[in-house]
Amino acid sequence: MSDYNIRLGKIGEDLATQHILRNGFSIIEKNFRWRGGEIDLIAQKNGKLHFIEIKTRVGFSRGMPYEAVTPRKLAHLKRSIELYLKKNNLAEMVLSLDIISIILNNKRQVERFDFYENIEA
Fold first, then answer.
1. Along the chain (121 residues), what's the average pLDDT of each consecutive run of 10 residues?
2. How far apart are CA 6 and CA 87, in angstroms?
3. Closest CA to 53 of 64, 71, 38
4. How many CB atoms lie under 10 A from the CB of residue 7?
5. Closest-CA residue to 37 (of 1, 73, 7)
6. Least enclosed by CB within 10 Å: which of 33, 60, 90, 117?
7. Contact by Cβ (8 Å): 82, 97
8. Model confidence, pTM
């Protein structure tokens, strides 16, 4: 991954974190990594555990960021979630798989911010 993509991803993660904290979520973990994948953000609100994938792009030329969450990416996320739940003995939790999709302008200001909750419902 290029330095540009790493910096862009960090901006998106910071914006997403600010958004969920302002909206009453508690952050449980950031960047849960294992050999098979990563979960960008794990948060909790009203007894529900939210596994959040964050996608950030500059401009609209490459489409919407959420479009990068392909069926293959969803399968990786689901495996990561299963591992996290097993590792932390959380089998009985109510879950939500969410996507935060962020478009920035050339000055790195938010052009569009979308939060899609429970995409697997």
1. 83 96 97 87 96 95 92 92 92 92 94 93 52
2. 27
3. 38
4. 11
5. 73
6. 33
7. no
8. 0.92
Q: What is the CA radius of gyration of the chain?
A: 14
| DSSP 3-state of 7 | helix
CA distances from 26 to 12, 63, 85, 89, 96 (A): 18, 30, 17, 19, 14
User: Taking the C-alpha atoms of 85, 87, 91 and 93 in order, what is their torsion angle to the nearest 10 degrees?
Assistant: -50
Question: Among candidates 64, 63, 65, 61, which has minimal Cα distance to 52?
Answer: 65
How far apart are the C-alpha atoms of 69 and 105, rounded to whole Å?
21
Cα 29 to Cα 81: distance, rounded to the nearest angstrom: 12
The alpha carbon dihedral of 102, 107, 109, 110 has a sign of negative
pLDDT at 1: 66
